Amino acid sequence: MIPYASAAEAEAALGRAMTWAEAAWYKYSVAMPDAWLHCHTTVILFVIYTITPLPLLILEQFAPSVILPYKLQPGVQVPLADSLRCYIEAACVFPIAVGFQLLSYPAAAKVLRTRMGLPLPSVRETVAQLVVYSLLEDYLSYWIHRLLHTQWGYEKIHRVHHEFTAPTGFAMSYSHWAENLLLSIPALAGPVIVPCHITTQWLWFSIRLIEGINIHSGYHFPFISPSKLIPFYGGAAYHDYHHYAGGRSQSNFAPLFTYCDYIYRTDKEVSFFPCPHSTRNNVLLPGVRSYI
User: Which segments constitute the Fatty acid hydroxylase domain (predicted)?
Assistant: First the structure.
């Protein structure tokens, strides 16, 4: 809760006029308890998780001729019922997460040291923090993912996520509860080590969720692929091969960037690999060699 009785008092404390964004933030959060602002994270992620996979899902059902040319495994069609099952099982976790956040907020506040008030962070500060969070999360997730591909980790935990050899957006969060818990550690590591404003935290988790849905989408759109703009970005094709290989996979563990796979020699340079029932020709991704 912002500790100012009025906007004028807030500006006096800042020593300057509030920006339009700060004024909007003041109006929204001035009377809201910090615990509720903290819980916004889960609500935002629920909305993103619900909406983001829908366009591809709708196109698959009603306009397959438009979308299927870009499908990485065109011979595998995930039934609509399975996609909805993924969503329902994952969505059930969000209300539980809100309750947990409310109960754990005093302890979480001490660990995260998240700022809730004014001033809002600058663009430079936000970008710098997001870069640090991304690199750190990628490194830690890489090693957790490798551990989950040991025989015990795969059979007891990770095999649930790999039920989908041709993943869809909703399958991103379809995992064993222990895996969800383990992979929350890398995502939280950055904000714990480098504390940020709550708005940066919302942005960070939103970006990671959208990116996770993207790499599990099962589609590669060359005309809008971030892999053309972002160095070491793996993208959907890179991670789709990991699901295609399933339990046998000992490569392409990185969730976002590929630098860990490159350093530790677990990078599998992939093409648009064909499904066993597909007649599509192999179309090589820019800058990589075929695994075939």
Answer: 131-266
Q: Which 3 state secondary structure label does DSSP give 149?
A: coil
Burial state string for 85-97 with b = 16 or more CB within 10 A and e = fewer than 16: ebbeebeebbeeb
- The structure's pTM equals 0.87
As a whole number of Å, the CA-based R_g of the chain is 21
Q: How many CB atoms lie within 10 A of CB 237?
A: 23
Check whether the bond before 79 is cis (ω within 30° of 0).
Answer: no
Which is nearest to 142 in space by CA: 251, 288, 68?
251
Q: Which two tokens stand for residue 126?
A: 């936000």
Are 196 and 181 in contact, with CB atoms under 8 Å apart?
Answer: no
Burial (CB < 10 A; 0-12, 13-18, 19+), residue 117, is buried
d(CA 116, CA 4): 13
3-state DSSP assignment of residue 199 = helix
Cβ-proximal residues to 91 (8 Å cutoff; 6+ apart), any chain: 46, 49, 50
pLDDT tens figures, 27-78: 999 889 998 999 999 999 999 999 999 999 999 989 988 998 999 988 888 8
Contact (CB, 8 A) for 216 and 169: yes
**Exposed/middle/buried for 6, CB within 10 Å: 0-12, 13-18, 19+?**
exposed
Which residues, in sequence order, are bridge partners of residue 272? 283
Rounded Cα distance between 145 and 170, Å, is: 19
- CA 235 from centre of chain: 12
